Amino acid sequence: MAGDSRGVERSVEQTLGHLRTLDSAAIDASAPPLTLEDLYRQQRMRMVRLAILLVDDPATAEDVVQEAFTGLYRNWSGLRDARAAIGYLRTAVVNGSRSVLRRRKTAREYQPPHQADARSAESLAMLTAEHQAVVAALAKLPRRQREVLVLRYYGNLSEAEIAEATGVSRGTVKSTASRALDALQKLMGG
């Protein structure tokens, strides 16, 4: 395993080193940028490539770099020299990329609270009293129990398919279904 990680590390080092060399060749390091416009022309694509490597999305990377240059513009008069601007940009791009990744993670993890859908009067009228009681009891079950029963009996899915859809094991599907049926029986009074 250690040999594999060294090989991966070597590949990453070679690839990123190659990109760094390409970026460095495109910039005349001996002539510092004199204006923000010069800096933008010289460093924009390099910063975009850096952001792409961090956020893995060209459009988002462009936005991160644009925000970094906007911040630099606001703080231009406070910089000690033009060389410090490159460090400022690099830090701003890394921090902006981190913020993007944090927001992505938060968005993926967010699950809105369950809101029972109001059923139409027609659909309720078509249900017998017993069916209405089952639907009402289902709405009172915890989210996972409700999902398992709906996927099993409405979706007609197998335990394996339910496990895949909900991201739990087959054993958890079985036990959840059993507990849900017990809870429904209690909720329906018998």
Automatic annotation (TrEMBL):
Keyword terms of this UniProt record: DNA-binding, Sigma factor, Transcription, Transcription regulation
UniProt-recorded Gene Ontology molecular function terms: DNA binding; sigma factor activity
Gene3D superfamilies assigned: 1.10.1740.10, Winged helix-like DNA-binding domain superfamily/Winged helix DNA-binding domain
Top-level taxon of the source organism: Bacteria
RNA polymerase sigma-70 region domain mapped to chain residues: 39-105
Any one of the GO BP annotations: DNA-templated transcription initiation
Start and end residues of each RNA polymerase sigma factor 70 region 4 type domain: 132-184
Presence of the UniProt keyword Transcription in the record: yes
UniProt record similarity statement: Belongs to the sigma-70 factor family. ECF subfamily.
The protein, known as: SigE family RNA polymerase sigma factor
Naturally occurring in which organism (per UniProt): Saccharopolyspora hirsuta
